[in-house]
Amino acid sequence: MKQKLKNSVGIITGATSGMGKAIAMVFAKEGARLILSGRNLEKGNELADQLKNSIFIPGDISIPETNKKLVKEAIDHFGKLDFISLNAGALGLGNVVDLPIEIWKNTLETNLSSIFYLSKYAIPHLLHSESGTILINASIAAFKSFPQHPAYCASKAAALALMKQLAVEYAPKVRVNAICPGPVDTPLLWDSAKAFKNPESAVENAKNATLLQRLGTPDDIAKLALFLVTDDSSWITGSAITIDGGILNT
Ligand SMILES: NC(=O)c1ccc[n+]([C@@H]2O[C@H](COP(=O)([O-])OP(=O)(O)OC[C@H]3O[C@@H](n4cnc5c(N)ncnc54)[C@H](OP(=O)(O)O)[C@@H]3O)[C@@H](O)[C@H]2O)c1
Questions:
Q1: pLDDT digits (tens, 9 = 90+) for 104-150
Q2: Residue 24: which H helix or E strand, with range?
């Protein structure tokens, strides 16, 4: 069967863990050549070794230069750029009064400003692609609050506003969409549970609150991501697509 991303070049942030890693694995299987981003050298290099035609470029995504470098590496190594998949995320837990200002700023920089930085440097190249796409991993936290998640929820709601702005500014050449996952079984979910009164039962409660009675898997998200970066979704732009086992309806 024809590979869906054959001849495509993309950048994947948050590729060292969870959903970003699953997206990288599915996209590589579909023939994409990838620049993988994250800070963890061991995990990043291990994934790059495992995938064909992929290069790990370490760096803190909250720094503009890191984003500039990711785009430069894509162009230097592969000669073009077709999509960016933005998954890096930080929780920055704490109630407003107690949350250190540095953590507030870092969470916004990691979850929101990094989308602005990478888009800023990538779009001039995406405009040359036959099918340029930007795919932002937001969250259902864009729509509802969670205990001790003010920085996280604010950053995810703002990420959707930025997604819409990008979709309007760069249509029809570049399609821009967001995925809004519910509870997905990754290290970030288990860290997030620490913000709840009873962390031990928080993940189990989240699972039981889904209509489908299970946590999401990184692979569930990767399948939707694949749909949204390929021409299968060629009439979708400016959309925030919820993938949450139905939890927002409970
Ligand atoms: N899990 C959920 O239930 C859930 C639900 C909705 C939305 N999300 C969103 O989904 C995305 C992926 O999260 P995940 O659940 O897959 O979490 P994860 O397994 O903990 O992965 C987080 C990724 O973000 C990277 N990252 C964090 N801060 C970074 C920084 N400053 N610079 C570069 N990379 C950074 C990490 O890389 P290094 O450790 O190598 O730096 C890691 O690859 C996040 O945006 C998250 O907000 C998660």
A1: 999 999 999 999 999 999 999 999 999 999 999 999 999 999 999 99
A2: helix 18-29
Distance 87 CA to ligand 1 centre (A): 6
Prediction pTM value: 0.98
Residue 130 tokens, joined: 């036959």
Which residue minimizes the CA distance to atom 46 of ligand 1? 89
Look over the chain and give the mean of its residue pLDDT values, rounded to a whole number: 98
170 belongs to the catalytic site: no
Helix (H, G, I), strand (E, B), or coil: what is residue 178? Answer: strand
Residue of minimum CA distance from atom 23 in ligand 1: 14
Ligand 1: does its nearest atom lie under 6 Å from the Cβ of 216?
no
**In which domain, by residue range, is 37 found?**
9-184+217-243
Burial 94-130 (b: 16+ CB within 10 A, else e): beeeebeeebbebbbbbbbbbbbbbbebbbebbeebe
Question: What CATH number is associated with residue 156?
Answer: 3.40.50.720
Domains in the chain: how many in total? Answer: 1
Q: Is residue 199 part of a domain?
A: no
Q: What single DSSP character describes residue 246? A: T
Token digits for 245?
């086992």
Residue 72, domain member (yes or no):
yes
Q: Is 88 in the pocket of ligand 1 (CB under 6 A)?
A: yes
Q: Which two tokens stand for residue 196?
A: 């709840």
